[in-house]
Design goal:
The structure holds two protein chains of two kinds.
Chain A: H1 2-17, H2 53-83, H3 92-120, H4 124-182, H5 191-216, H6 229-259
Helix pairs in contact in A: 2-3, 2-4, 3-4, 4-5, 4-6, 5-6
Chain B: H1 3-15, H2 22-37, H3 46-76, H4 92-115, H5 122-135, H6 145-162
Helix pairs in contact in B: 4-6, 5-6
The chains are: A mainly alpha, B mainly alpha.
Amino acid sequence: MRRLKRTILLVGLAIPLTGAFVSFNVGTARAESTSSTLLSVDLLSVDSASLAPEEKLAKAKEDLVRALDLSLKKVESLKSRLNELNFPEDSREQALKNGALGNLDTYAEYYLNAKENLDKKGSLDEVKDLAKEIKEYRDTTYTPGVERTVRFILVFYNEEVLGVANDRFSKIGADIKKLDKLGVVSEGDFREKLDEVTSLLKEAADLQGEAKKIILATSTDPGKSEEPSAKDMIEKSLNNVKTVYGIFLELNQLVKEALGI
Amino acid sequence: MRRTDREIIKNLQGLRRIEPDAEYIRNSRRLILTQGADYREPQPGILVQVGRSFGFAFETTLVAALFLVVILGGVFSLSKSFFLPPLQGIDEKALLTEADAINEDINLQLNEIAYFGVHKTSTERVVALDAERLQSQKEKLLLTEAVTDQEIDKLLNQVINEY
């Protein structure tokens, strides 16, 4: 009976639509590549041997100023990402956010001081020593702290992305049910894919939940150790979401094929 | 030819000139004209009449429907989805846009966290990230916070080692 209904509908569609081209434009909707956002990091090579000593000093200072400016920019970017997260005033999340913001202020202060110190340096060796100090600071203090902050941001980003993916999945499920009721597709034909998505999203949510527990139980103090698995959990969870979107696109193709469009 | 035969032929030839007399013509014409005024076609039965009515209605409807199908077909051909209910979930354009945005965004986030991953010093990170980029030349490295950090680390290494 269902096959008959489908045949009738498809024949009904086929008569007026003979020769029509498919209206879904698979390729055109794809966003333009993000090539404009690419940044070459290989532009820094310098032929220093041909430079005079004063030129070397000027170039070294120029590079160090650039490094410090980028560092300040990075700190500001992290602060703005943190400030986009809203939590209840007395929550653990808010306390950790405030701690992370405090750490970022400390890093910014360090970089600003370093810039002031650089102005006072009169020799290449002094500039090099300052660069070493900054490098040491980044390796021992800045990077571990920023890594922790990035994980904190990512765990909530992960939560948000999961919400979007679940919402999309609900809509796709509803569409397939609608088409099944009309008798134009059979929900059973998509069951395997739908179950796979359910399983991936559940695993992603479990991992995100676990990572969040770990991160909320940990201090943002860079000196304290953190359970390393939180990062792996977030990575796995986000990769699941990427896989799920791949399946969504497959489902879209399968539905189109079933409808003959 | 015998005489009798000749007479018969002569008589038959004479028949060509036969015509009704004037009175017969007048009477016949009057009779025909009078009958025409009162003439009625034989009436078909009620069932036949109903059948004919339905047949005509069916044919008219069919022609109208086919006409509509042909006319509207041009419009419908622009989109088969016209016949389908609104499908928010598998709306291809929205889905593709969302999938692209999510994938790109997740890649940015994963790149950032990966930069701080295994390698703890700036020198190790720069070398590792460069090696990774060489390994997968097809995969473009997106501008991320991680790239900013890599550039910072490179600049510092350059100041220390290149001048």
